[in-house]
Amino acid sequence: MTSRIDWVADSCRLLTAISAEFAATQPFAGLTIGTGIHLEPKTAALVMTLARGGARVVATGNLNTTQQETVDYLREHGVDVIGGPTSDPAQHDRDLRELIAVKPDLLLDNGGDLFARYLEKPWAGLLGGTEETTSGRVRLAPLRDKLNLPVLVINDSPIKQFAENRHAVGQSVFESYLRLTNRSTGGKRIVVFGYGSCGQGVAANFRNAYGLVTVIDTDPVKRLEACLDGFDVSDRDAALRSADVVITVTGARDILLADDLPLLKDDVVLLNAGHFPLEIDAPALLAHPDVERVTDAAEGLQTLRTRDGRRIHLATGGHMANLAGPRPLGNSIESMDLGFALQARCLEAIALGRVAATDVVVPVPRLIDEAVASGYLELVAGVRG
Ligand SMILES: NC(=O)c1ccc[n+]([C@@H]2O[C@H](COP(=O)([O-])OP(=O)(O)OC[C@H]3O[C@@H](n4cnc5c(N)ncnc54)[C@H](O)[C@@H]3O)[C@@H](O)[C@H]2O)c1
After folding, report:
1. Which of 28, 190, 245, 287 is an S-S bond match for 54, by CB 3.0 to 4.6 Å?
2. 249 within ligand 1 shell (Cβ under 6 A)
3. From ligand 1's centre to the CA of 7, what distance in Å?
4. What CA–CA distance (Å, rounded) separates 194 from 201?
5. Is residue 323 part of a domain?
6. Is residue 162 included in any domain, yes or no?
7. Which of 212, 162, 161, 160 is nearest to 186 (CA)?
8. R_g over Cα of the chain
9. Does the residue 250 lie in any domain?
10. Do 358 and 332 touch, CB atoms closer than 8 A?
């Protein structure tokens, strides 16, 4: 049987094409690329693409997300992997520092961890690199003057915004609701907190599945957008009173609190899709004096039984439901293929000296967005421009 890593790699059509091109053009010949990104099947496809382009890749993972099968696979294929699965921040810090000690020529960062440590002890010869996330951009932007080399932020590409945050998160949160509950959505009242890129996708996916969706957002402009998109945007507490499913995806904390418990109706499902497990105050809900007992209802679902006889179901303890619970698959392979094609092309452009030293912590260049979009349209959608 082939592994899931092979299934993912075969489904990454853009990376497969870029990999074949890199094998011929060798943009990273003689260079070392240090990567500090989740080590799971989709990133394995990216790391192997960089290696086929001639790079020596030295990789380490992120806290909590490293998959041993991927580590083994990468090592078997000649990648230097530092460390393994860990939830110990001190061990993770040691792994990152061991990678930095190699003094790579390019860095592929996720959250600014590598560039921040590079600045503690800079070395000559670092050409620049990429940063995957918004949180990394927020961390590195004030350090532009010190960095003074090309750093391209993948999250700030419009492709990442709509392909991953809107389409893929919406779809995978919907898939996770079905996976965790095995319940229907038709005619159900769904309340979505947050109407950013992710919330828009979540709201659309549940409506497309015949749910009656209410959107709650603190920003009146976003509420207007949701209203014009045809969603109910009425009163928060009234929406919570009738909700069958409540989904938080705001990036803020304290969205659903213990004080909301009296509002919730019997049999409601609470699910967080925001990055941190701070949107639904799970500890306070579980400890609420009105909660008589808590039972494990199914894998990834806890049921809080209230003294007045209601059942409140909490998904994955308030952690991101599409990346937790039984067999989490995360975002679609196609969305990650697009994001990682941006990564590969950005690193190539920096390696070949095509990005100015003044492009420090800036979005993906427009030409790369256009090339990746055209590639997907031709290769995956079968459409020629
Ligand atoms: N689950 C996943 O796989 C996944 C993937 C990408 C991003 N995320 C996370 O999803 C979250 C949202 O991301 P995004 O890109 O949509 O962010 P965004 O900033 O584009 O949108 C967030 C929205 O939430 C609203 N909001 C803020 N506080 C609120 C409150 N108290 N009540 C109601 N609305 C509030 C904001 O006005 C904004 O419209 C972030 O935590 C992000 O890290 C999750």
Report:
1. 28
2. yes
3. 31
4. 11
5. no
6. no
7. 212
8. 22
9. yes
10. no
